[in-house]
Amino acid sequence: MAQNHMDILMPKLHDICLAIINEVKNLRSAVSCAAMATLGDMYVHLQRAMDSEVEGTARVLLHKASEANTFIRQGANFALGHMVQSCTPTRVMNALLVGGLSHRNAAVRSCTAQHLERLAEVMGMARLLSGKKDLTDRFLIAVSKLAVDPAQEARHHGRNILRNVATNGDFAKMWDKFAPRKERESLREVISKVNLKERNI
What we know:
The protein is mainly α. The chain contains 13 helices and no strands. The protein has two domains: 1-103, Leucine-rich Repeat Variant (Alpha Horseshoe); 124-201, no CATH class. It has helices spanning 6-9, 13-24, 29-46, 54-64, 70-86, 89-101, 106-123, 125-128, 136-146, 152-165, 171-178, 181-186, 188-198. The longest helix is centred in the first third of the chain and has 18 residues, at 29-46. The N and C termini lie far apart (56 Å). The mean pLDDT is 90.
């Protein structure tokens, strides 16, 4: 339907997404996986038309990333991957940060970091470090938190992003302006290694 009947789908998109979200929460793994696959298809075929539903759908998918069932986790990751590739990047970033950055569950934070790393590649470092309000500041604060996260996987992705972004010419100025002082001190060595590598020292 998302591919061939957008005229039928769009007027009731919000209600349809709410119904799918409820099915994602279904205790039967087959039902939940099918619902997540449906969200993935909707991201791919509706793309920016799904922007208004990104925050709500991302939240339930991130939550599923903490499940013990491997198929559930994979389903959530596949759907989130489609979201990152298909919807408006700034909307996606907001959804990831709101839904997972400060979550108590380490698996959810790790999933958030993984998809934020991919989103950074999609958006490009120049855009992320443009200094635009509610973009550069939120991005750098999030990266600084993930790079010192107690969870190894979240920290790994956070530091990958940091290494990539630190090579941009605008990084130092924006980092000093927006990153929290505590995290700046903790990550000084990581950034120094990037700078040495850039100078081939």
